[in-house]
Write a structure and sequence with these properties.
Number of strands: 0
Shape: globular
Distance between the termini: 16 Å
Strand content: under 5%
Oligomer: single chain
Number of helices: 14
Length: 266
């Protein structure tokens, strides 16, 4: 791979290999729940079980209404699971695709796209359950603003695909990266309103962890229509797209220099 990484030619190669990476995506989905009785329903069962447990405990600790707090936690669980899977799994995408990389001359970005799309399909299945839940709990919030939830999919791809690609280049050379990212993501979890409500941060004088936290704004694109009955703000989209631009530039910069060397690290 030469300096054409992320050029038009590179995108053309990704498109031409679409049948290959689409096959990998569906192969991963089939293997994930092979011989499972509930199959893809686990995409709902697992986060729902965690939600019921956490909402019961947290609603008692923070004196919140469990009926409204539970959907809040569920929305955080499914989005955070997607982000965490894309980041930690993305760091090993090249390593896990070693056999393909050594035999095929496809653009390396398709292997991180594979990871991102698998997670996105699981997320989409869980979102259906949240739509139903929100319709039952918050029928007054049903409206055209629910369409804004669909924008979360391209935004998440724009953020996680370049970030996963960047991490894959580093992870191919340094195999401890997934463990390091696990610690970093755990710290980010505590600093973000994933399970804890934003008002708790503001009440503790931690407004900066809300106003300038991309995770909060990503969650608001998702939560505002379903749980609050309003459109996401321009600031929500702006702060969500800033990391997308940064990660895309860094992935291009690193890929431009190291794509040809990855095979020597595997």
């Amino acid at each position: 791979m030469n300096r054409s990484v992320m050029s038009n030619d590179y995108w053309v190669k990704i498109w031409r290999s679409r049948f290959f990476w689409i096959h990998l995506v569906f192969s991963d989905l089939r293997s994930r729940w092979r011989r499972s009785f509930f199959g893809m329903a686990w995409a709902i069962i697992q986060p729902l079980g965690l939600t019921l447990l956490m909402s019961f405990v947290f609603s008692k600790l923070f004196h919140s209404d469990i009926g409204t707090y539970a959907p809040y936690i569920f929305s955080g669980v499914i989005i955070w699971d997607y982000i965490l899977t894309s980041v930690t799994g993305g760091a090993l995408s090249f390593v896990q695709a070693e056999a393909y990389i050594k035999q095929c001359r496809h653009p390396l970005a398709i292997y991180t796209l594979r990871t991102v799309l698998v997670g996105l399909m699981i997320l989409a299945f869980a979102i259906i359950a949240l739509f139903v839940w929100a319709a039952v709990v918050f029928p007054e919030h049903i409206g055209w603003h629910w369409l804004a939830v669909l924008s979360i999919f391209p935004i998440l791809v724009l953020i996680t695909w370049p970030f996963a690609t960047l991490l894959s280049y580093i992870g191919a050379r340094f195999r401890d990266l997934p463990h390091v990212m696990g610690l970093i993501m755990q710290a980010l979890w505590f600093m973000s309103p994933v399970y804890f409500q934003a008002k708790m941060f503001r009440g503790g004088g931690l407004d900066l962890l809300i106003d300038f936290n991309p995770v909060y704004h990503i969650l608001q694109i998702f939560r505002a229509p379903l749980l609050e009955g309003k459109w996401p703000t321009a600031a929500n989209y702006g702060y969500a797209l800033i990391p997308a631009c940064v990660f895309a530039f860094l992935a291009w910069l690193v890929g431009r220099k190291f794509e040809k060397r990855v095979i020597f690290y595997l």
